[in-house]
Amino acid sequence: MGIELDVLVGHPEHDLLFVATQVARAAGLKNPSQSVTQFKNGHTGLKGLHQWRGITTAYIKYVDPKNPIPGTPGSNVLQVNSWVADEAWVYKMLLKGHAPASEPFRKWVTEEVLPTIRKTGKYDAEQSTNPIAMGLMDEILAETVTPSYEKSERLAGS
């Protein structure tokens, strides 16, 4: 079992965007909204966090009335004042939390990825037998280029 998060893809300035409170919840932080607020207040410049209302215009041309993007009428995932986070922010939160579901991810990053980078200067997920690395490689191979809103895309785990 891995961590499932709503993922927004196709923004011209961000490869992936995640709902910040979902990430905090997946990380096992007790009060997700408060955790996001504390994180953005405690870090200079809000790097990695973006208010949804500030980036929605990039998605307007992709709106499908049958499958609305977050923050548009008919969507219940995001409100205009919600915060979305980039990939680096997601990793920071998942490493900070204590949720059992995110433990395999933390263990993989701290016991395999980072030590391998320190020793060799790189990490090649294709060479790993770790289920998380293999799952990520499967996702990369199956990834499409079409900008869309993907519900419950698996971040890591099997």
Characterization of this structure:
- With 158 residues, the protein is α+β, with helices and mostly antiparallel strands.
- It has a domain at 3-99 and 146-156.
- The protein has helices at residues 20-26, 32-42, 87-96, 103-120, 131-142; strands at 3-11, 14-19, 49-51, 83-85, 149-156.
- Strands 3-4-2-1-5 form a five-stranded antiparallel sheet.
- The protein is globular.
- Residues 1-121 form the Bro-N domain.
Strand order, largest beta sheet: 3-4-2-1-5
* Element order: H for helix, E for strand: EEHHEEHHHE
Work out the radius of gyration: 16 Å
Characterize the quaternary organization of these chains: single chain
Give the low-pLDDT segments.
144-158
Q: Overall 3D geometry?
A: globular
Write the layout of secondary structure elements.
Layout: E1 3-11, E2 14-19, H1 20-26, H2 32-42, E3 49-51, E4 83-85, H3 87-96, H4 103-120, H5 131-142, E5 149-156
Antiparallel strand pairs: 1-2, 1-5, 2-4, 3-4
Helix pairs in contact: 1-2
In brief, what are we looking at here?
By secondary structure, the chain is an alpha+beta fold. It has helices at residues 20-26, 32-42, 87-96, 103-120, 131-142; strands spanning 3-11, 14-19, 49-51, 83-85, 149-156.
What key phrases describe this protein's structure?
158 residues, alpha+beta, five-stranded antiparallel β-sheet, globular, Bro-N domain-containing protein, BRO_N_domain
